[in-house]
What does this fold into?
Amino acid sequence: MPRLKVLFAGTPEFAVHALEALLANPEICVQAVYTQPDKPAGRGQLLRQSAVKVLAESRGLPVLQPASLREESAITELVSFNTDLLIVAAFGQILSAQILAAPRLGSLNVHASLLPRWRGAAPIQRAIMAGDATTGITIMRMVERLDAGPMLLQRACTIATDETGGSLHDRLAKLGGAALTEALALLLTGHAEETVQTEAAVTYAKKIARVDRELLWERPASELARQVRALHPLPLASATLGGIRLNVLAARCGTPTTDAAPGTVTSHGEVLCVATGAGSLELLSVQPAGKNVMTAREFLNGYRHRIHA
It folds into this structure.
C-alpha cells in the first residue's frame, strides 16, 4: 500500500512535535516542509532559523520559506507536489481556499485549545489568564475562516494551579503530536468522523499585545497572578512600582484582604507585596528595566527606599 503523501507547514517549537509524529509514522511520506522565512534576532540581528526548519533540515527534508503562500508562484509550487494532505501547526500565515483545497484529502490543523473555545493566535495564554481548569488539542479540518473548521479529534488536559504559559505550551506540544497520530490513524482507516463546531460557544484568543502585559493594580490579585503565569517565560508581565518599570516573572496571591490603595507596596521583611483591587499580590521574581532578574529580597535591598515600602 503506498504511503500517504503529506506536506507540513509549521514554524515555532510547538510545531516540532507534530512534525516528529509524522516522521515517525511509517505510513506517511513527508514530501516537504513549509516554514516562515528566517528572521533577524538578538543584539546582532543575525538571521535565526525556525525550530521546524532546524528539525526538517536535520532529517534531510526539503524546506520551503515563501514570504507568502498567497503568491502565485508559491501556490503553483505547492500544487505541483500533488500531495494527499497538508498538515498545519502554528505556521504563522493565513492560507487561502486555493491552498487548503489543493491536497487530495484537504488540510488539517493542530490547534492548542478545545475548540470552539479560544480560536486564534494565543489560546495557551488566554486559557490561563481566564482561569480555565481544562484545555487541550483539537485536530480540525481547515477552512478559510479562522479555526472554524469541523473537528476530527480532541484531547483534553488539566491546567495546574501553578501552570505557566511555558509549561502548558510544552505539555500541549507533546499532546498535539500524539493527537495528530491518532487522528491520522482514523483518517487512514476510514473511521474519522467530523464534528461541526458550535458557533454559540466560540471565544477568541487574540494575539498578546503590549496592553495585555501591563499589571493593572486595580484588578483582583487572583487575575494578576494568572496574568503573570500566562505570560511567562515570554513576553512577561510588566508593571510600575514607585516609578520603577519592571518585568514580573513570578508572583502569587498574598493576603486576601488589604486596606491599602491599589498599587501600594505593603512589603514586610523580605516579602514584596502590592495591594490590588482585591487582596494583595506577592512578587517573587522581578527584573527592573536594564537590570538582571532579582528575587524579592534582592529587589527590596536595592529599591526599598524608592518604592516607599
Summary: Residues 210-303 form a domain with the Methionyl-tRNA Fmet Formyltransferase; Chain A, domain 2 fold (CATH 3.10.25.10). DSSP finds nine helices and 16 strands in the chain. Residues 84 and 104 are 5 Å apart (CA to CA). The radius of gyration is 23 Å.
